[in-house]
Write a structure and sequence with these properties.
Layout lengths: L1 H28 L4 H8 L6 H11 L5 H13 L13 H36 L4 H15 L2 H15 L11 H30 L3 H8 L4 H13 L1 H17 L1 H6 L5 H11 L2 H29 L1 H10 L1
């Protein structure tokens, strides 16, 4: 296990460096001049003299290789520069908003798991039953409806009409319910479908037949053996969607005026705040890499066959 973690970490480093190189290249290939964007955000009329001064201050007059190396060194120290709008360190601005996005992400994951696991598992066990038809309807509904429209529907019914939950902002658990449910709906559709298909497939596996031949109780077979193996694709999907949740909460945060990282990113795009955009992209890439590593480790713990296959390949 330790060797596997070290090998995966060694592969993460070059991938992340490639992400920094790609982000660096896109910024410099963009028609937006960072020095001009800074002056525009500061409401300063850009002249040739001031632009040359700012380019020198930002190090944009240096060779591209030197700029890239300096950027990697700064990023390794969590130094993403200074925001063009607030004139404050980007990491300070981001770190103050990340907890709100994490809170929203965790809330949506909890809702998605609590709903999708029982529905998907029962739908796989009882094919073509009422719960199975409901699971398929839920999957189609969740995959089809846009998140922003579903969010506005929740606001209209539960906030405007019934006055049960706040419309916007953050503070109490009531503020978290509607945005978390909005963000969780696509995950519920995906996880329900994945778990149902996995249960149907694993019901035909030999280990289920052997467990029944040994005289084990059906509940033990379903809970201890079948669910543990069938949930594996769902965990894989969870790892792939964790980064999407953190970065894809942009629309939900905008609809519910949630003061998170995604909303801050939208403002940065409109203001052409290059350091904030760069920070967002690189943090998203790092989150995807780490979440996939964590999911692989969980998969090896849940399904020992994965670790055995890895030893055989070596």
């Amino acid at each position: 296990m330790g060797n596997y973690i070290v090998k995966r970490l060694m592969t993460i480093i070059p991938i992340f460096l490639f992400a920094t190189l790609l982000t660096f290249g896109m910024i410099h290939l963009s028609p937006v001049d960072p020095a001009e964007a800074y002056l525009t955000a500061a409401h300063i009329q850009p002249t040739d003299e001031i632009l040359a001064q700012k380019r020198q201050e930002f190090g944009l007059d240096q060779p591209l290789l030197v700029q890239y190396v300096n950027a990697v060194i700064q990023i390794s120290q969590l130094d993403f520069g200074v925001s063009y709008v607030t004139n404050k360190p980007v990491w300070e601005e981001v770190s103050s908003r990340i907890p709100a996005t994490i809170q929203l992400t965790v809330g949506s994951l909890i809702i998605a798991i609590l709903i999708s696991v029982p529905i998907g598992f029962l739908a796989g066990l009882k094919k073509n039953s009422g719960i199975d038809h409901f699971s398929r309807f839920l999957s189609f509904f969740g995959a089809s409806i846009p998140s922003f429209w579903f969010g506005y529907l929740l606001i209209f019914f539960f906030s405007v009409r019934l006055d049960l939950f706040p419309v916007e902002g953050i503070g109490t658990w009531k503020h978290l319910v509607l945005p978390s449910l909005t963000l969780a709906l696509p995950l519920i559709a995906l996880y329900t479908r994945l778990l149902r298909a996995s249960v149907l497939e694993n019901l035909q596996e030999p280990y289920v037949l052997y467990a029944r031949a040994r005289g084990l109780h059906e509940r033990v077979i379903m809970g201890k053996y079948l669910l543990r193996v069938a949930i594996s694709p769902m965990i894989t999907g969870l790892g792939m969607n964790l980064g999407i949740l953190m970065t894809g909460a942009i629309i939900v945060e905008a609809v519910f005026s949630w003061p998170g990282f995604g909303r801050y990113f939208i403002e940065a795009i409109f203001n052409r705040d290059v350091p904030v955009i760069q920070c967002y992209v690189l943090l998203s890439a790092g989150l995807f890499l780490i979440s996939n590593l964590v999911v692989d480790l969980i998969q090896m713990y849940i399904d020992p066959r994965i670790s055995r296959k890895g030893r055989q390949l070596r």
